[in-house]
TrEMBL record:
GO terms for molecular function: DNA binding. This is Phage integrase family protein. InterPro entries: DNA_brk_join_enz, Integrase-like_cat_sf. GO terms for biological process: DNA integration; DNA recombination. Residues 235-244 have a biased composition (Basic residues). Keywords: DNA recombination. Residues 198-244 are annotated as: Disordered. Gene3D superfamilies: Intergrase catalytic core. It comes from the Bacteria. The keyword ATP-binding does not apply.
Length: 244
């Protein structure tokens, strides 16, 4: 993932996801990459890893509720220790903040109803996309959207934007943020995004109404130490005399 993807957001406009979507919606892109839009919409709404989309994202729709089940892709680290969430469920409503204007939400709600199975009014559809091909498609889409920029937009830029939005939202707890990211620890999100690049309102994002994960999120003492450090730094800045 690295700092490069995290820092990419600085050079992008606040509506970069909308710009990417418009490019992907052109006849040329839809004809050459017919499955890209559904994966792009999932990246936008959920900030998933490409490997998670490759495993298959289950989408459900019923009574105005759009639900996703994501199978985690990073469950064991190099030392054999448990990490991540085996599965997580994320729920949005058509009444969620930002849903009515978000093209990704609208697209997936229509998609699952038109292509999914229907069991008593409950629609279900599994969306998948090859991880490496998705990565290359997003890179190409970014270049087509911003030909004059040297910025490299990968799927992980979507993940960093998702994390930034979570950090900027005062209503999202660290525990829920960890679940939404598919993390086991509430400290892990610190590696992704910055609150300054997040969107507090519904513009450009849809706010989840519920999230569940297989494993209980572990609270890290590092989070408390970081909070104390930030509070002390803020106090120190306030005490510094202003330069006239």
């Amino acid at each position: 993932m690295g700092k490069a993807k995290k820092g990419t957001l600085k050079s992008l406009p606040s509506n970069w996801q909308e710009d990417m979507w418009r490019t992907a919606s052109t006849p040329e892109w839809k004809a050459s990459r017919p499955k890209l839009q559904r994966a792009l919409a999932i990246l936008w709404l959920l900030g998933c890893r490409p490997a998670e989309i490759a495993l298959g994202i289950t989408i459900g729709w019923a009574n105005g509720t759009l639900a996703f089940e994501v199978k985690g892709a990073k469950l064991v680290d190099a030392g054999g220790r448990t990490r991540g969430q085996p599965t997580r469920q994320v729920v949005f409503s058509r009444d969620s903040v930002g849903a009515a204007e978000n093209p990704a939400f609208i697209f997936l709600a229509d998609l699952v109803q038109s292509e999914g199975s229907n069991e008593g009014g409950i629609y279900k559809l599994v969306v998948t996309h090859h991880a490496d091909y998705l990565y290359n498609c997003i890179i190409a889409l970014g270049k087509a959207t911003y030909p004059a920029k040297r910025t490299r937009i990968s799927p992980y830029v979507f993940r960093n934007q998702f994390a930034s939005d979570l950090k900027a939202d005062p209503d999202i707890s660290l525990e829920d943020a960890a679940k939404l990211m598919g993390h086991l620890s509430d400290y892990s999100i610190g590696k992704y995004g910055h609150a300054v690049h997040g969107r507090k309102s519904g513009k450009g994002r849809v706010k989840p109404t519920a999230v569940r994960a297989t494993r209980q999120v572990k609270h890290s003492p590092k989070v408390d130490r970081l909070a104390r450090f930030k509070a002390a730094s803020a106090t120190k800045r306030k005490q510094q005399p202003k330069v006239q």
